[in-house]
Design brief:
By secondary structure, the chain is mainly α. The protein has a single domain, classed as Up-down Bundle (Growth Hormone, Chain: A), CATH 1.20.1250. Helix content is 84%, strand content 0%. The chain contains 15 helices and no strands. The longest helix is centred in the C-terminal third of the chain and has 33 residues. The chain is globular.
């Protein structure tokens, strides 16, 4: 695969962006204490990031679709670096919310553009692999970013972490400036062309599946630290270790999900992943019985959730073969909607009931995704059979 170095640099960029988005889950209690807010209010720092990436970022991507991708990536990465510095000096919770919106916009655009650039820099038959590498950068933010960031924050404070991430982003920004060529669409893409894919009910259903399975994941994982503390006597350092193991499972899940999609097809992989994700969420009810059981259930949950992602991306690309970048952009938007939905639902659950009920709300969301997948795949299979009979 050509341009390997650049592809991995882009994956590292997505890793840093993912770390900034997800790190709140590991330091949520530190932030709540620092700003003098409740845990559910601190969870809004995840929600606003996700909403900004889901709503504002795709609008700006649509408006800049004919702009040089390299230039857009440089601008958004510069904004991302600056926003991390602003988090360090943020004087209040309200200010931090506005900065998280800037991070969500810049990070959301950079992630989609990085994926689009990656597909442009490799051979056509290697585009799936390039997307997989970028997605592994995202899952790696859970493998390394969140647990290491949580441990680092325990020693130096959570604000210093954002400065460090900002500094680390400078190197890939320089490499993008030096190594990535100018990339523009060969033919102008209109907003109407981008919106046209949303008229297809199959695509809309697929996007709804993304929304609900990510929503189910985010409902629990955004508040995984207080959940683990409520079901065990683990210290924050021990929880960092468990999050590290969970992150490894997410990384492995991304890799296995891509391989399984190639071997068995994206439909099988999505269906199996959703079924396993739902099963583990129901098993979290046994979390208080034994610590080993709790850790094992969490590991399988992470493995199942992240195995769905590459298969879902591949499935959407096959649905929109002429405009795969647009499909990836819209799906990325719905992923962020899912994170916002989950963190918002989780906050409501904690505010009105107990953190121990998070898994049941998450299960409801994943069950909806599973039912939608069954209906969609059955409809598509019926359509194929009908076309064969007609021929």
């Amino acid at each position: 695969m050509k341009n390997n170095l650049i592809i991995y640099v882009l994956a590292f960029v997505v890793f840093l962006i993912g770390t900034v988005e997800y790190i709140i889950t590991g330091v949520i209690e530190m932030i709540a204490t620092d700003f003098g807010v409740t845990i559910s209010e601190a969870g809004l720092l995840v929600t606003v990031f996700a909403l900004a990436a889901a709503i504002i970022a795709p609008i700006l991507i649509a408006l800049t679709i004919n702009m040089d991708r390299k230039k857009l990536l440089i601008v958004t990465l510069s904004m991302f670096i600056a926003s991390n510095g602003l988090v360090f000096i943020s004087p209040s919770y309200d200010t931090a919310l506005w900065i998280r919106i800037i991070q969500g916009v810049s990070g959301g655009i950079a992630t989609v553009v990085a994926m689009a650039v990656a597909t442009r820099l490799v051979e056509k038959e290697r585009r799936g692999r390039a997307i997989g590498i970028i997605l592994m950068g995202l899952s790696s933010s859970l493998v390394l970013g969140v647990p290491i960031g949580t441990f680092f924050s325990e020693i130096f404070g959570w604000r210093v972490l954002f400065i460090l991430i900002g500094l680390l982003t400078i190197l890939p920004l320089w490499i993008v400036y030096k190594k990535v060529p100018k990339i523009k669409e060969e033919e102008a893409v209109t907003l109407r062309m981008q919106l046209s894919i949303l008229k297809d009910t199959k695509i809309l259903t697929a996007l709804a599946i993304t929304l609900f399975y990510i929503g189910g994941y985010s409902t629990l994982f955004t508040y995984i630290t207080p959940f683990l503390q409520a079901t065990s006597t683990l210290s924050i350092t021990e929880i960092s270790g468990i999050l590290f193991l969970a992150g490894i499972c997410s990384f492995v899940g991304s890799r296995l999900g891509g391989q399984l999609a190639d071997a068995k097809g994206s439909r099988f992989t999505i269906s199996f992943g959703l079924l396993l994700q739902g099963a583990t969420l129901s098993l979290f009810a046994l979390a208080g019985v034994n610590l080993i059981v709790l850790i094992l259930v969490l590991m399988i949950f992470m493995l199942a959730t992240w195995s769905i992602s590459p298969a879902q991306q591949l499935f959407l690309v096959t649905l929109v073969p002429r405009n795969p970048d647009i499909a990836l952009s819209v799906n990325t938007s719905f992923i962020q909607f899912g994170f916002a939905l989950g963190s918002g639902l989780g906050g409501l659950v904690i505010s009105h009931t107990s953190v121990l009920n998070l898994n049941w709300i998450a299960l409801a969301a994943v069950s909806i995704a599973f039912l939608l997948a069954i209906l969609l795949f059955k409809k598509m299979s019926s359509g194929i059979e009908s076309s064969i009979v007609t021929k």
